[in-house]
Amino acid sequence: MQYFSTLKQARSLITLMLSLSLLCITGVHAADKSSAVMAADFTLASKAHGNLRLQEQIGSVVLINFWASWCGPCRQELPLLEEIQQQYADLGFTIFAINVDKDSSKADVLLNDIPVSFPVLFDPDSKVSELYQVKAMPTTVIVDRDGKVRFAHLGYKNGDTDKYQHIIKTLLRE
Amino acid sequence: MRCLAQRYLHKLWPNILRGVVMALLSLGLCHAQQASVSSVNTDPKQVVVEKYYQQALYAYFQGDFAQALLYLALLEQTTPQALTLVPTYLRNEALEPLLLKGAISLAYGLEDQAAAIFQQSLQQYSDSEKRTFAWFLLGQTYYQQGRFEQAQQAFLAITADDSLVYLDQTSRDTLLYSQAQLAAYFGTEEPGAWLSKLSADSIYLPYLQYNQALVLLQQGKSQEAITQLRQLAEPQQSSFGALVDGWLSPLWQADEQRDGDTTLSQDEERRGLRDRANLSLGYVLLQQNQAPEAYRVFAKVRRAGLDGDAALLGYGWAAAKNDELQTALGIWQALMQLPYDSSFSLEAYLASAYAYEQAFAPKQAVQVLDQGVKRFNSALQQIQLAKQQVQKPAFIVALANHIDAQRMDVPPTDAQRSEVQPPGSAKTGFTQYAAQPATTILSRVVDAVVLSNDFRQKLDAVKQSVRIQQQLEEWQQRLVSYHVMLDERQAARQAEAKNMLQDRIFDRLPALQAKRDELKQQLEDSRSQNSSVSLMSPEFQAWQQRLTGAKLTLQRIQSRRQALNQAPLDEAYQQRLARIEGVLSWQASEAYPVKYWQTQRLLNDVDDALYEASAQQQDLLSVINQRPDYSAQRNRIEGLQQRIAQQQTTTTSIQNTLRAELTKALHSALQEQQAAIEDYRIQAQLAMVRLQDQALQQNQHSTLPAVPSADIGRPPMLGSGQNEVQRQDQR
Amino acid sequence: MTATWVLLTVLLSQLLLSGAQAQQLDAPKADEADDNQLASQLQQLKKEVIALNRDLFILEEDLLFPSSTQVVVFLAVDVGDYFKLDAVELKIDEQTVSHYLYTEKQQLALAKGGVQKLHLANLPQGKHELTAFFIGVGPHDREYKRATTLSFEKGSDAKMLELRITDTTATQQPEFTVVEL
Predict the structure, then answer these.
(1) Phi, psi dihedrals of residue C83, rounded to the nearest 5°
(2) Can you give the pLDDT at residue B484?
(3) Cβ-based neighbours of B730, under 8 Å, separated by 6 or more
(4) Bridge-partner residues for C136, per DSSP?
(5) C163-181 as b/e, with b when 16 or more CB fall inside 10 Å?
(6) How far apart are CA B479 and CA C7, in angstroms?
(7) How many CB pairs under 8 A join A and B?
(8) Which of B80, B292, C21, C63 has the fewest Cβ atoms within 10 angstroms?
(9) What is the pLDDT of residues C132-147, one digit of tens each?
């Protein structure tokens, strides 16, 4: 009794891998899958990628980063995020960098110095910031392949991007 | 007479003309109106049907099949046979509503329904385009259900010309691939016959080529198989997937996304296929005693790919066959040092022992076997633990969620090179490049079991049932919130009623009634007195009063005068008063009818207002007293809640059955693995006994040089191993 | 020696077997009847869930948007050759009620004949005014911002309005209209 289509049957050989090992690194865990909440859906305009909707990214791991032009640590964080993007882009990973400045042109202040390849979204009315209850800059939220929030982190310190990397690797393997 | 008529005609002519023109115009308008009515169908049901259908299309083309089916279900509830009401201008791109419904049902997993729909379509349609699609989709449905004979028959009903004309490229490729698979299954045709028909950039092409190679191998035509595999092993130019167009495109895109890994680029797939091809080629070459070739081929297999371990083992065998025992041992040592247990790494122990035996170093062999036995024992322990773990109910559900994983081929960064250090290996080599793999034997076993289609299907069914459970749970909560909402509405209504009472909205009524009574009284008075004095304006009344007052005063003066024996007042006063009285009474009588009528009208108005106000009051009172309990809506909510609860129990029972079967499958796989490892152990123990005898008999140096582990980063040079050994002896 | 061959052939046959199994179709199994029953149960469950979804949808509409106050605004696009829709802003009675951004996927779905339920509102009976702003990219990559307005009368039945973007090949310009359905 076959439930699947031919494509899946054919590809089952190549597309399988199971990893039951959770990556536990010095206390930084990805949240348990069964208790995670769905990430709130939104559509925002981006700088160069058209309008992007979170729900359409289901199937990829998404790192949502709220940043602003007046936030110093964001300036440090952006190039590191670009590195992460380059590393994992082929494996089903994307970054949504949401700029919350009321005047969207201020984002160029940072972006002119730090070119990024991931989509930069604009939320001038702070609709999405309120949705995600953003209280500090920058805020990072990592969403897994099923659209569930697995990790949230306020602020940025040196070494935070390594934590993100570990989480992302775990989620990519799921 | 005639001049009269002429005169009249002359006068009437413009009117007649005008009349005729108007008639014509109105006729024209009527006609136009009729025409517009027929083109713009104002039937509200038709509009509703159209809108539901178009919303279904919107959801379908975004790949949201559940939503599309929802809208179609809503559509069909408006009228039976609603699908036939969808107007033709909405049926573009061969998008027959019935076929669309069937396609969406198929994509969503409702195969029985889809099959029924397609069979119905075949009975209904005689148009060849629609029939082609119907046969194609019917065949796909049967294929998915496992009814292969019927699938084959369905596909045979499509002629090649039809498929070229009507089907888009991806559908055509799918059709060809399915037919190829079916042909292989029934043994009628070889996969190769279909190869030529597939489009060049279809992802199915390498699969068919590989299958054909396997078939050739089974038939014993090794040379041809080798050529085929070699061809496959060549890195092909990556082609971008054919522009998926045509109305069936969401189905094919959904296939990619259903696993949850939209990232599975075709490149990745092709690389995996190439690995597998290389692996098979290597083994075939080994069998054909072409060891050096086999070497090279094994080296091409990506170490981190799915077949990396097998490749290593085979690589070792290639070296061994070439009498490169040192290399072989080095390779197998790398395998043995891997942190996880796979059948390949465990076999490496036995293989190394064999190599040592060939190298006349039985003591080493015994050592290795000893290590091996220890390893085997630990592996067996792990299996015992795994068996227990598999029995837990949450395990299967977690498995279902994680099964959408994709084997990662992470290119190593500097950070990773320092990170991934399997214990004991110091050099860079193949092992460093492995993505952090599953470290338990359970994961390896699950990997193997999951290759079976049946297991995967059941696992996916578990996953779907979990999703359905979540959905039902969410609906239950929503319905509870609606109950609360209705309560709130009820409370709000009652509060509103209280406010209205407090607003004294009903005070108007008595005031009106008082006014009415007053007016009525006035009328009565005037009627009885037959004078309208009471109806007159206040000014008039004032005059009247003054007159009365004046008369009184005059009388008083007269009487006083009389009493004081003075001369009476002049007649003139009396006359003036009489005259004024006369004027007033004349004015009154003149105004009487008008005034009467006015007052009557006022009375009527007040009556009306009173009536209205009392009616309003009645309404308000009835509304307040109604105490809306929304009973009808509450009943509906409860009905839905019951249905949801019912479906929840069904889902749970289905999930339990599936879980039991999956646990059984895993358990038996673990059992198999256990048996295999126990077999290894026995072999090792037997070999140990044999070799220990040999060691005792032989004169053993204990100073044999240690075998250096080969640097497997690059393919070893042929013959270099020997040189190394010699060099070391010279030290 | 024999050990080698045994091992080798075992490996090769294992490989072939696993490969063959994965690539080719499974033979029918013994307990197929049970599997069939399970599968049909699952299908039945899915159908019931769709029916539930449908009834829930209708109930929600009745509770939250009764037809006496319901106004629904649709968006339809007729072949997007001349206009790529980026966003739509909707104002009812001078108040912005919806600002919707369209992704590529949604634009494609619209172009293929889909209609979006843009907005659902409760309005009291009487006269109302609807204004729609269309923002997008027209032919020659020019940015467009167009608006249309419609005054309508809300009666006691549910009101359906549709925003239409049509291409007129005559002028090669997109046309924006609002109609009552």
Answers:
(1) -155, 125
(2) 92
(3) none
(4) C85, C144
(5) bbbebeeeeeebebebeeb
(6) 63
(7) 143
(8) B80
(9) 999 988 777 888 888 9
Distance (Å, whole) CA C134 – CA C99: 10
Nearest CA in chain B to C73: B51
Token couple for B208: 């068919």
Most confident of B40-44, B272-276, C70-74: C70-74
Q: Which CATH number fits domain A6-173: 3.30.70.360, 3.10.20.30, 3.40.50.920, 3.40.30.10?
A: 3.40.30.10
C-alpha closest to that of C163 among C107, C99, C119 = C119
Which 3 state secondary structure label does DSSP give C99? Answer: strand
Residues in chain A: 174
| Sign for the pseudo-dihedral over CA of B433, B439, B441, B447 | negative
Q: How many CB atoms lie within 10 A of CB A151?
A: 22
Mean of all residue pLDDT scores within chain C: 82
Q: Are C159 and C72 in contact (CB under 8 A)?
A: yes
Q: Which residue has the higher pLDDT, B718 or A96?
A: A96
Would you give the DSSP letter of residue C167? E
Contacts of B535 (CB under 8 A, 6+ apart): B522, B523, B526, B591, B592, B595, B596, B598, B599
Report the C-alpha gap between B688 and B681 in whole angstroms: 10
How far apart, in whole angstroms, are the C-alpha atoms of residue C180 and residue B345? 72
Q: Would you tell me the crossing angle of helices B148-156 and B128-145 to the nearest 10 degrees?
A: 160
Cα separation, B16 vs A174, whole angstroms? 88
The residue among A83 and B532 whose pLDDT is bigger is: A83
Beta carbons of B61 and C181 less than 8 Å apart: no
Cα angle B382, B384, B389 (rounded to 5 degrees) comes to 90
Domain-wise residue ranges, chain B: 508-626
Q: pLDDT for A115-138, tens place per residue? A: 889 999 999 999 999 999 998 889
* Residue A130 contacts C, CB cutoff 8 Å: no
Q: Which of B62-71, B345-354, C81-90 has the highest mean predicted lDDT (pLDDT)?
A: B62-71
SS3 A54: helix
Would you call C6 an interface residue with chain B, using a CB distance cutoff of 8 Å?
Answer: no
Alpha-carbon distance of A149 to B276, in angstroms, equals 37
pTM of the model: 0.70
Which residue in C has a C-alpha nearest to residue B247's C-alpha? C112
Q: In this complex, is the C-beta atom of A103 within 8 Å of any C-beta atom belonging to chain B?
A: no
Query: Which tokens belong to B383?
Result: 């299996």
Of B163, B164, B111, B162, residue with least CA distance to B138 = B111
User: How much is the pLDDT for B716?
Assistant: 37
| A9 vs B203 pLDDT, higher one | B203
Contact A43 C22 (CB under 8 A): no
Q: Which helix (H) or strand (E) holds C148?
A: strand C143-154
Report, as an integer, the average pLDDT of B431-446. Answer: 52
Q: pLDDT at residue B334 above 80?
A: no
* B378: nearest Cα among B417, B402, B345, B416: B345
Does residue A1 have a pLDDT over 50?
no
Share of chain B above pLDDT 70, in %: 73
**pLDDT on residue B725:** 35
Q: Would the pLDDT of B47 be above 60?
A: yes
Distance CA A140, CA A149 (A): 11
Distance from the Cα of B207 to chain A's closest Cα (Å) equals: 8
Q: Which residue has the tokens 């990790």?
A: A151
Domain boundaries, chain A: 6-173
Token code pair at residue B529: 């007195």
**Is residue B245's pLDDT more than 60?**
yes
| B457 three-class SS | helix
Q: Amino acid identity, residue B141? A: T
Coil vs helix vs strand at C2: helix
For tokens 């969808």, name the residue: B86
Q: Which of B404, B113, B254 is nearest to C39 (CA)?
A: B113
